[in-house]
Amino acid sequence: MDKEQKSEIIDFINKKYQEEVPRPFKFIIRKKANKIQKLRIEDFPKSYLDCTMKDFILILKEALEKDKLKL
Question: Please, where are the H alpha helices in 1-71?
Fold first, then answer.
């Protein structure tokens, strides 16, 4: 993935974050987002790594609709 594509993704996330996350929740999200730096790709199952972003989002939506995702 080239630098322009990466920037486009980061810009999209930043825009959604600014537009859709209420200010009181931003502190909590920032604190939790720091845990991303501790993630180890080796710990993820192969099915997760092989999944496209489109499939991942559809899986999350379905799991939420069916109350399978425990958040």
Answer: 3-20, 23-33, 46-50, 53-65
Instruction: Measure Cα distances from 23 to 30, 38, 56 in Å.
Output: 11, 25, 27
Buried b (16+ CB within 10 A) or exposed e, 40-67: eeeeeeeeeeeeeeeeeeeeeeeeeeee
Residue 71 predicted with pLDDT over 80 = no
pLDDT per residue as tens digits for the range 8-43: 999 999 999 999 999 889 988 888 888 888 999 999
Domain ranges for the chain, please list them: 43-71
pTM: 0.68
* Distance between CA atoms of residues 9 and 58, nearest Å: 19
